Structure formats: C-alpha cells, structure tokens
Amino acid sequence: MSKSKAVVLLSGGLDSATAAGVAKSEGFELYALTVSYGQRHKAELDAAKRVASMLGVQKHVITSIDLRAFGGSALTSETPVPKGRSSEEMSGGFPITYVPARNTVFLSLALAWAEVLEANDIFVGVNAIDYSGYPDCRPEFIRAFENLANLATKSGVEGKQKFKIHTPLIDLSKSDIIQKGLDLKVDYSKTVTCYDPSDDGEACGQCDSCLIRLKGFADLGIKDAAPYR
Question: How many domains does the chain fold into?
C-alpha cells in the first residue's frame, strides 16, 4: 500500500525540521519545499538540503522568489538584525525580522505543489508560543488559509481533494519542540535557525531566534549541537 503524500515547508531551521520529522513519523511520504526568498543569508538553504537528506524525503524542491524587492524586514534588507534582546523586548510588538506575508506566500507555493501531487496534506512548523509576535503563525491564520485552500483550487472546488494544513508545533514551547524532535531522532546539528549566521552556517548566538533556541536547550539541560561563532 502506497503512503499518502505530504508537502512539508522546510526552511532548514529547528522548527521546520521537527515538523518534517513529525510528518515522517505519521507515515507520510515527504515532498519538501524550500523557498529562497531573498533572505540575507543562504546558510539555511544548505541546512534544508542536509535535513531533507537526513529525513529521506521523496523529493526536495528549492524554488526562488524575490521578497527583497519589497524589503520591509531585517531579513530582506540591510537593516541590522537586533541582538541581545530580553524576553520582554522580544514579546513586545512586531519584530523587525517579521517578513511581510511570508507564510502566506510560502503556503500558497506549497498548496500549488500539493495540488499537482494530488497530496491533501501540508505541514508547516509555525509556533504561536515563542513567536507570538508573528501574525502569520497564529491558529486563526492557519484555519483561514486552510479554508482558502479548499476554495481557491480546482481540486478543492471539484471535491477531488480536501486540503489539510498540519501545524504539529503550534502550541508547544521551544523546549517541548526540541524534545519532540529528539524523540524522533532529528539531528539538530544539521539545522540553522539564526537570523544572522556566518556564511558557513555558524549561529550568532545573540539574535532573537538564537536566544529562544538556546533557552529551549537550556531548559532541557542539554547542549545545542549546532555550531556557534
């Protein structure tokens, strides 16, 4: 009996690697989609290739769009990435690392591929606890997009496919996400979560993403195996 196909958005970071691990553990045949969107660093693209290989995906597609043409984020412009912020600072308002409509764009690309593959399931590693400042990580957004997916596609309208957006990490703390991944044998040394890594993928250890990641490992009493400069 053939496995059900699932499109997994794979950035190369800790969360997307864990979400992909969950999809694999649930018996899906994985089709990984990575988006090169004009981000300031390419290290995560190399990480996505490593994670895809680790998980044995059926196919890994890296597609390119240019969100740098619009700017509006420290990740798609020369605006400095904030460093050394407190948890209170990180929880206040929308961070400058928010990329306008990024998850909407990414999910739309995943939906297009899922329709072609005749896959009903899309996995994304969004999280509404540690990243509450990001509006496109909220459950309300995911529910709305899932509804849109079934209204905006030929397969959905004809009733050939019922699309489901899976968010297995959305209500988990960072330490819970890490523990889930460790239980699934996800090798986090292959991932890059940093907003400002070196060209060879060493994390800065001071951006919001690094601080949240490091705290997650510290809460579990274990050392992060990823390289830091």
Answer: 1
